[in-house]
Each structure stands twice: as C-alpha cells, then as structure tokens.
Amino acid sequence: MRHDKAVTVIELARRMAASAEGLTLDEMAHEMRVGRRTAERMRDAVLMLFPAAEEVSDPPSKRWRIRGGLSAFEQAPTTGELVELSKAAQGLRASGELARAAALEGLERKIKAAMRSTTLNRLAPDLEALVRAETIAIQAGPRPSADEAVLSGIRNAILAGRPLDFTYSRPGAEARRRSVAPCGLMFGRANYLVAADRETAKIQTFRLDRMSAVEPGEGVASPPPDFDLAVFANRSFGIYQDQVEEVVLRVDAAGAAEAKGWRWHPTQVLEDQPDGGVVVRFTASGMRELAWHLFSWGDQVTIVAPDRLRQVMADELAAAQRAMGNSMDMR
Fold it and tell me: Looking at the DSSP assignment, which residues form a beta bridge with residue 245?
C-alpha cells in the first residue's frame, strides 16, 4: 500500500508538470479518481517532494504546476508504455497511415534518446521480446491514407484560424476547387476533414485521400461557435452523416453475450429480455453503415426500428442478390 501511494504521488507530479496552466484540486481529484481530501494530501506530498512546484492564482480557483518538467528519473517510461507506442506506430503503418506512423516513430526515437543508457539497456531485451510476441490483426476494409502535406496544411489552417482551399475529386464527378472553414479531423476506416461551408455554415466531410493542392486561404475562418467535433462524430454509426434516428435492435439469446460486450454507439442502452436476448437502443445517423455491420450478425439481430433502416437493409440485400445472380451468369 505504501508503494502504491508513492506511485500515485509521482503520477500526480507528472500530470502537474505536463499541464502548462496547472491543475486545480478538483482537476487533481478527477484525474486521479480520488476524493477532494485525498487530492489535498497528494498535492501536499508533491509540494514537499518537488520544490519546483508552485501555486498559481486563477480566481476563483488556485492551480498548482511544476515548471521546468521532471527529471529523467521520474519520467522514465515503462516497458509496457514503449511497447504500446511501438504497436500503435506499427498499426498505423500497416493500415497505410504512413505520415501518422512516422510521427509516432519519431516520438519513440526521441523518448529513447532522452533515456539514460543504463535504463534503456535494462528495458531493451524485454521490449524486443514483447514487440516480436505481439502483432496487429489487419481487417478488410478501406485503406485510410493521410498525406503528410495534407495533414500539415489542415492543421496549420486550424491553428491560424484561416480558411482552407483545396481541390476535391469524387468518383464520377469533375474535380472542384473548395474553400471551407476547417473544424477538425476524424480518423477511422477512412480519414475525413470536417469543415463548414463558408457561406451556409453547413458542416460537411471530405475524404483526405480525395483532397489535393491544399493551402490556407485568405482571411479568417472559424468553426461555428456552437460546433463540437466529438458531438458531431458521435451522431453517426460510422462516418456518414444523414438523418438522426432512434435505433432499436433485438439480439437473440445466442448472440446476447457478444452484444453486451460490443460497443454499438456512445448513446447505447442495453435491456435484458426474459428469453435471454437483449435489446440495444441508441440514437444515430448513418443507416447504410449500420446495415453493412448488421450483415455480420446473420439472423441473430432483428431490426425493430426505424423503418428506414429496414428498407436500407432490404436494398443492400437485394443488391447483394443481384451481384450473386450476375456472378452465376458469368460461369
């Protein structure tokens, strides 16, 4: 227990050193998942162990921070942390995210370069063994890509509060020059720029691999004041944004255990049924992507609502049947 307390005090010191403005007592309690009185005792321990810690007035609150960072001793990464960083980079590279993988690999090199040679030599054998013993399972699906120049151009425009100009190419349509107010980036099965139309303020998405000649535009362009990227992303089952609907799915008893361990949507509510099944409820858009996912559940899932999801599912099934018929005709 005494060792556990020492670990939590060091962790709080790291968080105080990592925050430019410092942490309030309430923020300490939240981040460390303790009560306010415990947070006070932990703060006092940090102030005693780290003379560089200082109090910052931020009416009506007070903040505490450690300027100048911590020494290499307190900041040495663990084998597990280095393995996860290496695996994250490998996963991005395997999925085609070369620019993002290179950024993580560069961070890994910097961390190792800052470590004491004795510490690095001690961790190296275990790190090498774990990296060889773990791998990334690549799943079928779109191969997302994000060109480093495109990412850099988008991020620079966001930081500068300027519009973003680019040429957008869609299959079967003529390439078109666009000028938007960038709101953020969404990474997933495909990578998207989320941006507001400069005239209508309508939020739109643009696939990064279809963007070219990206450059900051003239003037000032900011997201709508009430826009929240996380809220926008959580509206959809996947990436596509359309009408938001109440979704109700019934999973039979055979698939209930798996359904309970599945993250369907951030708004999901699961209800156990007398027969051992489970009802899943959530609010989302993107019925086509949801229909694609439901194919993987076979006959274990019944669509209760909405009607539009049932229709989309029927349309997708009919398209698959037509494709099967065509393939039989070609034999």
Answer: 284
